[in-house]
Amino acid sequence: MIQIISTKPYTDQKMGTAGLRKKSKVMMQEHYFENFLQSIFNTINPSGKTFIVGGDGRFYNDIALQKLIKMSAANNVKKLIIGQNGYLSTPASSNLILKRHTDGGFVLSASHNPGGENGDFGIKFATQTGGQCSSQVSDQIYANTQTISEFKIYNSPDIDLSQIGLYKMGSMEIEIIDPIVDYVELMKEIFDFNLIKEMFQKGFTMRFDAMNAVTGPYAVRIFEDILGAAKGSVLNAVPKPDFGGLHPDPNLVYAAELVKIMYADDAPDFGAANDGDGDRNMILGKKFFVTPSDSLAILTDNYNLIPAYKNGIYGVAKSMATSTAVARVAANKKIGYYEVPTGWKYFVNLMDSKRITFCGEESFGTGSSHIREKDGIWAVLFWLNIIAATGKSVEQITLEHWKKYGRSYYLRFDFDGISTDTANLLMKDLTLKLPSLNGQKINCFEVDKAETFVYNDPVDHSSTTNGLRILFADGSRIVYRLSGTSSSGATLRVYIERFNRDNLQADPRIMVDELLKIAMDIAEIQQRTGKKEADVTT
Ligand code: VG1
Ligand code: CO
Q1: Which residue owns the Cα nearest ligand 1 atom 18?
Q2: pTM to 2 decimals?
Q3: Which of 281, 318, 364, 504 gives 402 a disulfide partner, CB atoms 3.0 to 4.6 angstroms apart?
């Protein structure tokens, strides 16, 4: 029953910030998915192991899932635990890896990238930590993809994923489970559901935009069925293979429908959105937006209001590019504080070694050590719990936070679709140029440090470089990075932060404008890319 099929390497199967992400049509090439999966198996030896399997329901999930099942059976996997209909959000999958003590898991998703035949497809591979594999492991997998010559697949009809139950393929067990129940249980252990429920009973209103992606069913169950938010509070609640044409990235640009509702005169009290695979979140109040960097700082400052954290938290971490708002909270609370490269996998060692409890990224990711991935619905529940406990609005909570700590005005500017060569050369030249800026004064900004960011992991002692940064004496910062999630070409990300203690309610775009011009000049962005301005600002 086991077929051994000959194949030839593809040269481009290198994982980025979070798994392998490609155009669907690239993934659909003959043996492309099989080569990559077999390379993972060749690296980790899956014999006798158990894995969690799911995806965000995007185009090609159904076909890739069947390949994954048959290849697992042929590679002597002991058991697969699969979400019904192939659905599992990234956080739900991480939870199941930890709860069921499995050897790892697969989420078939390109996260916030658009789906469909002309969109993107992806594979996230997690280890028994519940977090995505380290770059050392992904390097080994990549090396394997370069020499692969055959893969193994079980010759068997497809498995029907629509019915919960126990099945077999050869000697491999298959358990199809409800993708939601375990996750709901975990959320109930963390937050005060009764308090939030009372708030909805008193007439509190919310809208949650699931963006036609995987969190729809989770959000309906939690917010509407259990917590009692009005029916219809969850928008775009049914996962669709092409996300209904949406770009399932929860920010002010792509979650336009929700933003329109939240900025209307009759806006509900609270608004939120999640991305394709449910690990990102956006938080909105009435005509009010909370930046993810501020959200991380506010959640950390209010940990004592949440049942699971009220006895204390270990520490907090952020990706380097994220604003320094949470650093001021950590100093105030006298808890550990860490800055890591972009990508959730860098938080895993810090959580496992009990150095941190909370972590976050500017890219709409927040989470805690309840799992080893960022968690969109967790962040929404955290905000609801704070609102229910304090009786304050999103805007009030945020304004009070700024009054206490000052405000980091923060925006990210993305320059998309640059050729890889142009982008790499820009970063290379900039790396060489930065040291010459040390101690210089640019307009009224004095450069404290201009350098390549190097992260030394305190647990496994690995060293990683990720992005370039210019730190100014007044606490302002410019950060440059190339995206590791684009499915073609390169995206240059320029992150600008400007700290202010007194002027708290200005327009962020105006506040960061001068620094943006400086950033564009230093990196010669217009000369090199032909772009006068960013394609997307978030
Ligand atoms: C982006 C974000 C990063 C995030 C990653 C995966 O990576 O910037 O913060 O961890 O996406 O998120 P990059 O390399 O393109 O900047 V997800 O929700 O796409 O898994
Ligand atoms: Co995601």
Answers
A1: 111
A2: 0.96
A3: 504
